[in-house]
Amino acid sequence: MRYALLVLGGPYTHQAAHSALRFAHAAIARGHRVDTVFFYHDGVYNASHLAAPPQDEPHLVDAWRALHREHGTALQVCVAAALRRGVLDASEAERHGKTGASLESPFELTGLGQLLDVERTHERLLTFAP
Amino acid sequence: MLLHLLNRAPSSSHVPRDVLRAMGAEDRLMLIEDGVYGALNAQVQHLPGLEGRLFALREDLESRGLAGRCDASVTIVDMDGFVALTEEAQRTVSWF
Amino acid sequence: MSERAEAEHGDLLVVLRHAPHGSLWLREALDLALVGAAFGQSVSLLLMGDGVWALLAGQGQGPLGQKGTQSTFDMLEMYDIERLYVDASALASRGLAPDDLLLPVIPVDAARLPAVLAGHRQIFNF
């Protein structure tokens, strides 16, 4: 089956992102596809590549990147939720006159309309919340 | 049949009560994260009427030191079993 | 009876369980509902728990200019979001009656709550 995950919880503060990653790998191990992870609400913080966790903790950003690299999972981030929380890619940073960007590929800023498209095109959608 | 995911403990949250009210007669309840505290012998009374429809995630029980404290009425599943439950349900609803 | 049962079906159900102002849950949930409606989906709202406070009359902005959500509720009709379910017991336990609310609602008792959830293709719970 084609799965999508909606992540509403920020990294480390809550278990949501860890649970979503665990689920994604378990679903793939059972032969499913996890084609999309959509980040909304505080979940958008998962997309900040500036996160620098201690070495003895799981590195969530790297784990999301690996999911994309190894399984082609799209990592989509709600642009409105991200901008107000300071999660910007290079083009949004330039548009808003910021000196740095905190989001980069394979994460991509997109609109809520994309989540609605995901909802229609994937057979299962699971939400992981704080 | 819907699969409800719950990550709140009955001892600290009113959310489990709302889940029970929203659940249909065939719906299932999967306890994850802090929701697994509801699977304990002394807590499961707060999740009544779910015989055969109440599940808890093994790895979240184990990381919290609860592995041997689960009530016998709760079905413990691993991640693979969790995915299987989502296959069987038409859709899932997350409560937090 | 059949009309009521039919009215419980739709594409998206957005469940609102948080009060306004204290967090962004309500606003970001409503944003999703409005986008869904703008994309041509039939969207219903279900207010449970403290979510029912969203419909109390007389709300304003926060002291720093925080927007709140009352103006968004005023737009629901424009977006063709017409089904506004409210958990009847959440109202009663807060001393509220349907007449206290900004908009006409469909009170739902415990026996009908599962049918409202089951009647929608997708549920976003906030």
From TrEMBL, chain B:
Superkingdom: Bacteria
Protein name in the entry: tRNA 2-thiouridine synthesizing protein B
InterPro entries associated with the record: DsrEFH-like (IPR027396), Sulphur_relay_TusB/DsrH (IPR007215)
Listed GO CC annotations: sulfurtransferase complex
Pfam family, one: DsrH
Biological process according to GO: tRNA wobble position uridine thiolation
Organism: Chromohalobacter israelensis (strain ATCC BAA-138 / DSM 3043 / CIP 106854 / NCIMB 13768 / 1H11) (Chromohalobacter salexigens)
NCBIfam families, sorted: sulf_tusB_dsrH (TIGR03011)
